[in-house]
C-alpha cells in the first residue's frame, strides 16, 4: 500500500465495482479518507493540513468564492461546493477542479508517507446531497493519478524522499543578500505546497530550488498546524445579549474583514474574534476577491500593507474612493511599524494602525473603539 501503482489499482477496482463508501488509509501519524459514490470520487478529506489544502484549491480554481462559516456534516468540502453551486457562485467546472486539486495533493501525500493499513467502509448513501455531475468519474481519476505519478517520479529523481510537501521552510540564518520576494515566502507561514501555489510552479521544482539552502543549513524545515475549519462548532458560537428595546438587526454579529495574503494571520485574528462574538471574512487575494468584500460589506477591515500582488496603501485609497467603504474603519496591520508607515497610512485614509503579530487585547480594543462609535445613535 505504499506505492502509487497499488493505490491506483485499488481506486480502479472501486470505480469498476461502482462502490459507494469511504476508503480509510492510515500512516504512522495520520489518516486519509477517500469518499466514493457509485465508483466516482466524491471528496478526499483527512490527512495533513486539510483546511490549508481546501484554501489552496479554492484560490487556484475559484478565488472569488468565499464560503461563509456554517454547520455541515462530513465531508464539509463537498457540501460547501454544493452550496456554492446552488447559490450560483461556482460553476460545475470550477467545483470539479477543486475536488481534483485536493485529490491530487492527497495522492501525492500518500506517496510521500508509508501507508500502514487501510479499510473500506461501505454505505448505501452518503450523508450529503449528491449532484451526479460533480464527483470525478474513473477516467478523470485516472488522469489525476498519472499526473501525480509523474510528479512523484520527479520527486524521487531529485532525491527529495526525506522532505514532505506539508513542511514549512524558514530561514535559520539571515540571508546575505536582500531578496524581498523570497523573504516574504519563507516567513514561517507557508508550506512547500503554499509556496508552489503562490509561485505557480510544481512543488517539485520549488523544493528543488530550495534544496541548496536546506543542505547548507541556511533554511530549515518545520511543521505548522492546520488552519481553522470553516465549519462552525455550535458550542463555540457566542451571541451578544440584547435588551428588549433593541431591534432584531442589532443582534447580528459584526463582520470583520482581514485582507492579508497570509492565511495564518487570518487564522490568528479569527481565534481572537470568534470567541468575542465577531464573524471573520478572510480575503487573501484582494485584487481577485474584491467582489466578496463588496457583497458582504464588513463593519471593519484589517488590512496588510505588503502583499505580493497589491499594496495596502493602494487598496486603502481605493476603498476610501468607493462610497460603500468611505466610513468603514480600516486598520492597517503590518510588521513594518514606523512613523513613516503610520503617516503614509493616515494619508491614504486609514483609521488606525496595529503591529504584527496581532495582540488579542489591542485587536479587541481597536474594534470596540471604532464599532462602538460607529453604532452610536
From TrEMBL:
Gene3D superfamilies: 3.40.50.2300. Its main location: other. It is found in: Cell septum. The keyword Phosphoprotein applies. One of its GO terms (cellular component) is cell septum. The keyword tRNA-binding does not apply. Induction: By nitrogen starvation. The modification 4-aspartylphosphate is found at residue 304. GO terms for biological process: heterocyst development; phosphorelay signal transduction system. Keywords: Heterocyst, Phosphoprotein, Two-component regulatory system. Residues 255-371 form the Response regulatory domain. Controls heterocyst pattern formation. This is Protein PatA. It comes from Aerosakkonema funiforme FACHB-1375. The lineage of its organism: Bacteria, Bacillati, Cyanobacteriota, Cyanophyceae, Oscillatoriophycideae.
Amino acid at each position: 500500500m505504499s506505492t502509487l501503482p497499488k493505490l491506483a489499482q485499488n481506486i480502479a477496482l472501486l470505480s469498476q465495482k461502482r462502490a459507494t463508501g469511504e476508503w480509510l488509509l492510515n500512516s504512522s501519524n495520520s489518516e486519509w479518507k477517500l469518499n466514493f459514490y457509485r465508483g466516482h470520487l466524491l471528496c478526499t478529506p483527512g490527512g495533513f493540513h486539510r483546511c490549508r489544502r481546501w484554501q489552496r484549491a479554492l484560490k487556484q480554481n475559484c478565488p472569488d468564492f468565499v464560503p461563509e462559516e456554517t454547520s455541515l456534516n462530513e465531508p464539509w468540502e463537498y457540501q460547501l461546493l454544493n452550496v456554492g453551486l446552488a447559490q450560483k457562485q461556482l460553476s460545475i467546472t470550477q467545483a470539479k477542479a477543486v475536488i481534483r486539486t485536493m485529490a491530487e495533493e492527497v495522492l501525492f501525500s500518500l506517496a510521500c508517507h508509508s501507508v500502514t493499513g487501510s479499510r473500506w467502509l461501505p454505505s448505501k448513501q452518503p450523508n450529503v446531497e449528491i449532484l451526479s455531475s460533480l464527483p470525478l468519474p474513473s477516467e478523470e481519476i485516472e488522469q489525476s493519478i498519472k499526473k501525480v505519478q509523474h510528479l512523484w517520479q520527479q520527486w524521487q529523481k531529485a532525491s527529495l524522499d526525506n522532505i514532505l510537501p506539508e513542511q514549512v521552510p524558514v530561514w535559520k540564518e539571515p540571508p546575505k543578500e536582500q531578496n524581498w520576494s523570497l523573504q516574504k515566502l519563507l516567513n514561517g507561514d507557508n508550506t512547500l505546497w503554499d509556496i508552489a501555489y503562490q509561485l505557480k510552479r510544481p512543488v517539485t521544482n520549488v523544493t528543488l530550488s530550495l534544496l541548496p539552502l536546506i543542505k547548507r543549513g541556511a533554511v530549515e524545515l518545520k511543521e505548522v498546524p492546520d488552519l481553522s475549519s470553516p465549519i462552525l462548532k455550535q458550542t463555540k458560537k457566542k451571541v451578544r445579549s440584547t435588551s428588549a428595546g433593541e431591534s432584531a438587526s442589532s443582534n447580528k454579529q459584526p463582520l470583520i474583514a482581514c485582507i492579508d495574503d497570509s492565511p495564518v494571520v487570518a487564522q490568528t485574528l479569527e481565534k481572537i474574534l470568534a470567541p468575542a462574538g465577531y464573524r471573520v471574512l478572510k480575503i487573501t487575494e484582494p485584487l481577485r476577491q474584491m467582489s466578496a468584500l463588496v457583497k458582504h460589506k464588513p463593519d471593519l477591515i484589517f488590512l496588510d500593507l505588503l502583499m505580493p500582488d497589491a499594496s495596502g496603501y493602494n487598496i486603502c485609497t481605493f476603498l476610501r474612493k468607493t462610497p460603500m467603504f468611505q466610513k468603514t474603519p480600516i486598520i492597517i496591520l503590518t510588521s513594518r511599524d514606523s512613523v513613516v508607515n503610520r503617516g503614509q497610512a493616515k494619508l491614504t485614509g486609514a483609521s488606525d494602525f496595529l503591529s504584527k503579530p496581532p495582540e488579542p487585547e489591542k485587536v479587541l480594543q481597536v474594534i470596540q473603539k471604532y464599532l462602538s462609535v460607529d453604532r452610536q445613535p
